[in-house]
Design a protein that fits this description.
It is a single chain. This protein has five helices and four strands, in the order H-E-H-H-E-E-H-H-E. The protein has helices spanning about 1-20, 35-40, 45-50, 80-85, 90-95, and strands at about 25, 65-70, 70-75, 110-114. The longest helix is centred in the first third of the chain and has 20 residues, at about 1-20.
Length: about 110
């Protein structure tokens, strides 16, 4: 009974996290390369690797599923704090995930990945 409650709690957490971040999937096709996947998804390879531990550009296989992180273009007046509240994530996590070390690096038009 305790295991079942624990399992249900973990599954609920997974569902909540998935719905918060809303990642989509890309399925590798026969002629795909890391470059073509970047072009098709619009997401830099670095972020695809971060979102998919074990992903390797030299060993892609047909049918591999790649999680593609959501992205957002920063609007004038938005801050890491306001974006963190909007997406229900830590502003510090948002900065680290996007390799941003200074609050001043957030300007309108910047694309952030979540």
């Amino acid at each position: 009974m305790v295991f079942r409650k624990f399992f249900l709690s973990v599954m609920t957490l997974v569902l909540v996290c998935t719905s918060l971040f809303g990642d989509s999937q890309y399925v590798v096709t026969a002629k795909d390369t890391s470059e073509s996947i970047v072009q098709k998804t619009g997401v830099p390879w670095l972020f695809l690797e971060k979102n998919n531990p074990g992903l390797n550009s030299t060993s892609l296989s047909i049918g591999d599923k790649i999680l593609v992180p959501d992205s957002c273009r920063v609007l004038a007046g938005e801050t890491f704090y306001s974006l963190g509240r909007k997406w229900k994530i830590s502003p510090n996590f948002l900065m680290q995930w996007n390799n941003i070390s200074s609050l001043q690096q957030l300007v309108a038009g910047t694309v952030l990945y979540i």
